[in-house]
Write a structure and sequence with these properties.
The structure holds three protein chains of three kinds.
Chain A lengths: L3 H21 L3 H26 L5 H31 L13
Helix pairs in contact in A: 1-2, 2-3
Chain B lengths: L1 H21 L3 H21 L3 H25 L15 H21 L14 H9 L3 H22 L4
Chain C lengths: L9 H17 L2 H25 L5 E9 L2 E7 L3 H24 L6 H20 L3 H19 L6 H32 L11 H4 L2 H18 L8 H4 L5 H10 L3 H9 L1 H5 L2 H22 L5 H21 L3 H29 L15 H15 L5 H16 L2 H26 L14 H16 L11 H6 L13 H24 L3 H9 L1 H8 L4 H46 L7 H25 L2
Antiparallel strand pairs in C: 1-2
The chains are: A mainly alpha, B mainly alpha, C mainly alpha.
Chain lengths: 102, 162, 619
């Protein structure tokens, strides 16, 4: 059987890819996509730990289900916000929104 | 055999994730994200979490990706190839990410992990159902409340004001 | 015995609070608030007077604070001196406030005026009732503040604003001496209570320290009572409303200096040098001010110089050992000088000028005011049986008996000049023909009724200290150890004093009525240099200006330069350094979320290194 740390490393890789996306994408939707990757990295860890170390009530998986629900909520609100911003500013590029300074 | 399956799935996850982050066209990004999420569902299946895998496919690939596609299509012009899709801090971000990954890897490497699956082993769908409606019923209901609030909020924010 | 004396200053203070907070809404009613409060104080003072006769003494309201082991109490001193002052202040104060209703009518800051007056009444009554130096000093500054506010009441006029500042700064010089005197006395004797002065202080204090303390305390009295050399502020203080001049700058506050000397008299008695200083300063002030008053043409300034002169006489009286003479003159003077000022105010109200050369023949047009004016003048000039006669006679007698021929001469000359300049004043104002087209009219009832009441006092209050009532006042005020046998008014002195007054009046009659317009001009031309000296008030203002004011302003200029260049430079420099730093650091804050996120992850890296670094790398 595969050792647990393989899954943890897989989670770390996915996490870092997501972070790179969040840091570099100009498009707000791209940033949201990257955030989904980060959440999935967390989910992989949760499920893997549950499988290897977990209790019979499946807490890790239930937690993962909650994360998926929260991710769905985040995407819905985030995308609606993007559409609202786009209506006002005709742009979805993050570096156009630098009003919150000084 | 089990190892080969794992490495294949892991490779799929990494490659698709990289593609979804690096693609110029946001629509393509969404497609690669869908594939990444499917691969992650594969990881769940591999870990004997069939219910979670199914939820992943249904909610993520079925619901969220559709939402993304709608959003992309609603915000015009963003598929235009002439627009630069990454900002000027790409190099710095790459270095930071690399260092971060290196550190995470180091930490993982020095930690003494268990070698095989524990006695808890597989959690059946029945167990999850039981847990959700007994011990974790409060957070479960709470999530539904948040979903409702998000729905209402999204409608209010998204409404075109006259 | 009910202890109510401490309530006396409370009512005017409440009136002050009401008027200062709700004055705008009260409008005309604010005057009645103040008058009512004064009236209550007056009634309480009468009750306290009866209590004193029934044997009530000073009492204690409780401990206020402890300084260096010395407990300081809210003491209320109820004795003959303070009760005498209470009655004078409340009677005169109430009448003047009633007068002010008419006099200040239509003023834009009507209620503010009454608020100040009430605060003054509260401070003055508190000053009278305080039984220790510390409380006296607090109220002392309170009346000084009111004086400043009321002199500069019409601050739109530059002259009034300037006069207010002059009064405040000049008295401040004396007050500084007063404060130092209190400190010195405390160092020497460890007490600040008046009651300790007579029996404890002479035992414990070293002589030179007590002398110095007495002289420093006298400095405060000199400033407040406008004595030489700090007299310059009082004539200028006439820029304020006339009712204020009557109350503060004639009857009560300026008398506080004399009151202070009387209150601390046992300290002065210790050393004959102190008493002589008081007498000499008083004598100089009396003669100097009286001589200036003979040529001045401003009706209020003549009265102001007269006040300085009379206060000087009181000081002289105290200085030559006439304790009861000085305090008696303080009381009678308060009444007739308030009367004179109110008459002057009534005249000014009618003719809208203060120049006596433009007045004349007003008696026929203003019967009540004119009669009151004449009564006040006779009282001040010392014609029997008016009030001033009895008290001035006492001072002359005390000076005569003290064996200082020089001081006696000064007192005599001052009395003569007083009769002369007051007669000149009323001859020019009330008699003869009008010298300019003035439409005079009698003042309203609120103004004339106080005049009548004060006239009554000006006539009869002197009888309290006359042989006719067996020296009731002297027996009442009697002080433990007077240096001369008092109250033995001799018939010869009375005759002399009467002749003195009548000759002064007669001279004025000859010069200003018989001589009409030609004689005064001729006399003045004959003595031109002396006349100029008097007209310029002995050049005190110019000398002070050259010696103190201008060097001080130069110094201020220097300091303001220092302030502008060095201090402001430091402050602005600090600001500029901050600005420079912020200009350097500001680009860090781009407003771009991804920049912040990048820096956040740098922080995460540092965090991992700190927490896990040892584990991962073994360094």
């Amino acid at each position: 059987m595969i050792p647990l740390d393989y899954f943890v490393v897989l989670g770390a890789v996915l996490f870092c890819i997501g972070i790179f996306g969040v840091l570099t994408r100009r498009n707000v939707i791209g940033v949201l996509i990257s955030i989904e990757l980060i959440l999935n990295a967390a989910n992989i860890n949760l499920v893997a730990f549950n499988r290897y170390l977990g209790t019979p009530d499946g807490l890790g998986q239930i937690f993962a289900i909650f994360v998926i629900a929260i991710a769905a909520i985040a995407s819905v609100v985030g995308l609606v916000l993007i559409i609202a911003i786009y209506r006002n500013g005709k742009s979805v590029f993050l570096d156009h929104f630098n009003l919150m300074k000084w | 055999m089990a190892e080969i399956t794992f490495f294949f799935i892991a490779l799929c996850v990494c490659v698709f994730a990289l593609l979804s982050v690096l693609s110029r066209d946001v629509f393509h990004c969404a497609v690669w994200l869908a594939l990444t999420l499917l691969s992650v569902a594969g990881v769940y299946f591999y870990l004997d979490a069939e219910f979670l895998g199914v939820v992943q496919v249904l909610v993520y690939v079925g619901g969220i990706i559709t939402l993304f596609v709608f959003a992309i299509k609603l915000t015009a012009k963003i598929g235009d190839k002439s627009i630069v899709q990454v900002n000027e801090q790409t190099l710095a971000a790459a270095i930071v990410t690399a260092v971060l990954f290196y550190l995470l890897f180091k930490v993982i490497a020095v930690h003494p992990w268990v070698s095989g699956p524990g006695s808890a082993a597989v959690v059946s769908l029945k167990d999850i159902g039981n847990s959700l409606l007994t011990g974790y019923v409060l957070p479960f209901e709470f999530i539904s409340l948040i979903l409702l609030a998000a729905m209402v909020g999204a409608i209010v924010i998204g409404k075109v004001k006259k | 015995m009910v202890k109510i004396a401490h309530l006396i200053p409370l009512f005017p203070f409440l009136a002050f609070v009401v008027n200062i907070l709700f004055g705008r809404r009260l409008k005309g009613a604010s005057a009645w608030v103040s008058v009512l409060a004064s009236g209550v104080s007056l009634a309480l003072s009468v009750v306290v007077y009866q209590g004193l006769l029934a044997g009530q003494g000073p009492y204690d309201l409780g401990k206020w604070l402890t300084i260096n082991g010395l407990p300081i109490h809210f003491g209320v001193s109820v004795d003959s001196l303070s009760v005498m002052m209470l009655l004078v202040v409340t009677i005169v104060g109430t009448l003047i406030q009633i007068y002010s209703i008419g006099y200040m009518h239509g003023d834009p800051r009507y209620s503010r005026y009454f608020a100040y007056i009430s605060f003054f009444m509260a401070s003055m009554l508190g000053l009278v009732l305080a039984d220790n130096f510390l409380m006296v000093y607090i109220f002392w500054e309170g009346v000084g503040l009111c004086s400043y506010l009321l002199i500069a009441f019409w601050f739109e006029r530059p002259a009034a604003a300037k006069a207010g500042m002059k009064a405040f700064i000049t008295t401040r010089i004396g007050d500084t001496g007063f404060l130092l005197g209190i400190f010195l006395l405390f160092i020497a004797t460890k007490t600040i209570y008046f009651s300790d002065l007579s029996h404890i202080v002479p035992m414990v204090g070293s002589e030179w320290m007590l002398t110095a303390a007495a002289l420093l305390i006298f400095c405060g009295a000199v400033g407040k009572s406008a004595q030489f050399p700090l007299h310059v502020w009082l004539p200028d203080a006439m820029e304020g409303p006339t009712a204020v001049s009557a109350l503060i700058h004639a009857a009560t506050m300026v008398a506080a200096g004399v009151y202070l000397v009387a209150r601390t008299y046992s300290l002065f008695v210790l050393n004959s040098f102190c008493l002589e200083t008081v007498a000499v300063i008083g004598g100089i002030s009396a003669l100097m001010a009286a001589s200036i008053a003979t040529v001045n043409n401003d009706i209020k300034r003549v009265l102001a110089y007269s006040t300085i002169s009379q206060l000087g006489l009181m000081m002289l009286g105290l200085g030559v050992g006439g304790y009861s003479a000085g305090t008696f003159h303080l009381m009678t003077h308060a009444f007739f000088k308030a009367l004179l000022f109110l008459c002057a105010g009534s005249v000014i109200h009618a003719v809208h000028t203060q120049d006596i050369q433009k007045m004349g023949g007003l008696l026929s047009k203003m019967k009540v005011t004119g009669t009151a004016f004449i009564i006040g003048t006779l009282a001040l000039a010392g014609v029997p049986p008016f009030a001033g006669f009895w008290s001035k006679d006492e001072i002359l007698l005390a000076a005569f008996q003290s064996g200082h021929p020089f001081l006696f001469g000064v007192a005599v000359l001052t009395s003569f000049l007083t009769a002369f300049y007051m007669s000149r004043l009323i001859f020019l104002v009330l008699f003869g023909k009008p010298r300019s087209s003035l439409h005079a009219h009698e003042s309203p009832k609120t103004m004339t009724i106080p005049l009548m009441v004060l006239s009554f006092f000006a006539v009869f209050v002197g009888l309290l200290g006359s042989p006719l009532t067996h020296h009731a006042f002297q027996n009442f005020i009697f002080f433990g150890a007077p240096s001369v046998e008092e109250g033995q008014a001799s018939g010869a002195m009375m005759m002399f004093s009467t002749v003195l007054s009548l000759s002064g009046i007669g001279l004025a009659y000859v010069v200003y009525i018989v001589g009409n317009k030609i004689l005064p001009v001729n006399i003045r031309a004959r003595f031109a240099p002396f006349d100029q000296l008097l007209l310029n008030k002995y050049h005190f203002d110019e000398i002070y200006d050259a010696v103190f004011v201008r060097p001080c302003l130069k110094l201020c200029d220097l300091f303001s330069q220092f302030d502008r260049i060095v201090v402001d430079g430091m402050v602005n420099g600090t600001a500029r350094v901050v600005q420079w730093f912020s200009a350097v650091l500001r680009p860090l804050q781009t407003g771009l979320v991804q920049h912040y996120l990048l820096i956040q992850f740098l922080g995460v890296i540092v965090l991992i290194l700190t927490v896990m670094g040892k584990l991962c790398f073994r360094f």
